[in-house]
Amino acid sequence: MIDGLRRGKPAFLASVTNAGEAEIALAGGADIVDCKDPASGALGALSADTVREIVERVAGRVPVSATVGDLPADPYTLVNASAEMAKTGVDIVKIGFFGEGDARPAIAALGAALAASTRLVAVLMADKSPDFRLLSALSAAGFEGAMLDTADKSAGRLTSVLALSRLTEFVRLARDNDLFVGLAGSLKESDIGVLAGLGPDMLGFRGALCAAGRVSGIELNRVAAIRRGLDAAKLAKERETSVA
After folding, report:
1. Which of the following is catalytic: 94, 128, 153, 188?
2. Residue 81 sits in which domain range?
3. What is the pLDDT of residues 114-133, one digit of tens each?
4. Is 128 one of the catalytic residues?
5. Rounded alpha-carbon distances, angstroms, from residue 153 to 42, 84, 89, 126, 139
6. CATH of the domain at 65
7. Is residue 6 part of a domain?
8. Total number of domains constituting the chain
9. pLDDT at position 144 over 90
10. Is 237 labeled as catalytic in the residue annotation?
11. What residues form DSSP beta bridges with 64?
């Protein structure tokens, strides 16, 4: 489990592109600062130097994650990219699996090479026929967690790409495999109530934090609005639990 985060109480992951945006994310109440280049794909990678600057700016106040790019499920490619990203000092390395080919050899290689020293989180693509059977392979390889995201940001939000029943199934299977579970994919503030009700550990945002699309800069008022929405969802769930 990621330090400082509570299972089933969705943390707020905010994707940022530089150290300045990281400060905005922290000021607005983000629980995880995620390093990502939205101009380079669904999981576009920032340069190692930029990620190091973000890590230094955050200075341990919250966990920092980073994506390794939209890469094929090739063991050699993913292990090398993940190892290089881990050297920046991030707490979590996120690796995307886009549904092309058998991901199991790459998952096993990543686990063997890095799981003992690096917190690995897999990202499955909701709009690429995700294979939920991979969750057991991820757990066996020593991955820390698994997320659902979307590859094509113009195709709609996570909540429109996959039925609620499938999202519920993903959260349940991740739990059964003892994986930290996150949901992301063009999410808006209006998605928080429904998705928080599924009990994920984290909800991820980028576009909702920006004034003019996900490649524009994030704004403090938008970050704060997502924070308020998550806090309200947590409070509502606690009230339901106390009544029950």
Report:
1. 94
2. 11-152+160-243
3. 999 999 999 999 999 999 99
4. no
5. 7, 27, 28, 11, 28
6. 3.20.20.380
7. no
8. 1
9. yes
10. no
11. 33
